[in-house]
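This section describes the prediction task in plain terms. A model, or a person checking by hand, is given the sequence of a single protein chain and must write out its three-dimensional structure as a string of tokens. No templates, partner chains or ligands are provided. The sample shown here is typical of the held-out split.
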Amino acid sequence: MVEQGAAACAEDEEIAGIVGVCRRTYREVVEAVQGGFLRAVEREGWPPEAIARQTQVFDRHVAPPLAEGQKMALFLVDAMRYEMGRDLAGPLAEQGTTVVAAAATVLPPITPFGMAALMPGADGAFALVEESGALVPAVGGRALTTSADRMALVRSRYGDRFAELALGELLSAPQKKLKGTLEKVDLVIVRTQDMDVLAEAGHLYQARKYMTEILGVLVDATRRLASLGFHNFVYAADHGHVLLHEVPPGDSLPSPPGSWRLEKRRCRLGESTAAAPGTVVLKADRVGIVGPVSDLVVPAGFKVFTAGEGYFHEGISLQECLVPVVTLAVRTKAVAAGKGESVEIRYRSDRFTSRIVGLKVHFASLLTQSLTIRLEAYDRTGTKAKLVGEPADCDARDPVTGLITLTRGAAVQVPLQIRDDFTGDAIEVRAIDPTGGTVLHRLRLKNAMLE
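The expected answer:
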């Protein structure tokens, strides 16, 4: 959360000292915790007996509602840490009953292994196999190297009852088209790798910001599916991650001696030939690894075998190996403004002179006590308009989703933050139904800023 906050205030030199203190303190605390955790894994093995296994997620949480003929949505969220799952559960609770549990990942915690472990029938059948000279995950002997392989496995079990969508596809599809696609579907899997892809590519500034924003995006996607009759939701991750400001030069270790089948920044998998300083050698069968390997070697602390950015997830730490499993049972469908309801955006003038625009949003209804909307500013009218403004922090704004809650008969004050790079002649402010994307009200304001 500190790194996400630092990204949001990157240009504010006044907080640089505070951020530095937070980073040093965090590193001291987590290094101590990490040392104890890694010693526990050496002593007890992995996964812990008291925590559910990642390979149990599908058969425990997804399969039972499907067996009863209920509609189920499974979100596969790459790199979602446990505390992110807890943050996600907060706004989801507005739609129904949420439960947050923890699951122990398969090792090492990398995307192909973790995603394969979330497939049906994985518990007791997950293993590593050799294919074309590479070590790949398999369930029941079936190699699951890619997302396409994994989705083919699900389709072989559920046939026409199953559909898959990328998160962007789900959010951008017109509601009518989405309804046609999912009308006869009982299981939809929604995939997103955006956060992990950004961080792996070295775009850490964007990744830090998106790690918060993606939770709101997931809530929006949930609302859309709930409006189409999906009442059961599971949100699961392949692995967590560590996000540090930097990897100090002394934290980059040489590769340990051995014959390695898999080499990652935070691990080596294969056969160790000698112990190396700063590393821990674990027998593969002691940490739940089934396959043609004998040893897993990981760095102590948060060290790495390859220098680079401060984002990684291939080692053994609580941040990397303990992932959330969030379940939601929807109570009622989301409510959108309709008959007997109206939303109106008001401003004291027809033009704005500052990048902070103080709006008032009114909600009138005969029956509904409150309404949740998305408030945004665009550089023009029409579907090709570019987003140029969003609500700043205020009492009505949910800090996770960014959505605004309106109260019947009250004027809700919302400060709208116009982006620094906007130089257009006018903006169009829109109150949007987050479920179906319907624009409930528009307000056009001329740009009168003197810059």
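For orientation: The radius of gyration is 24 Å.
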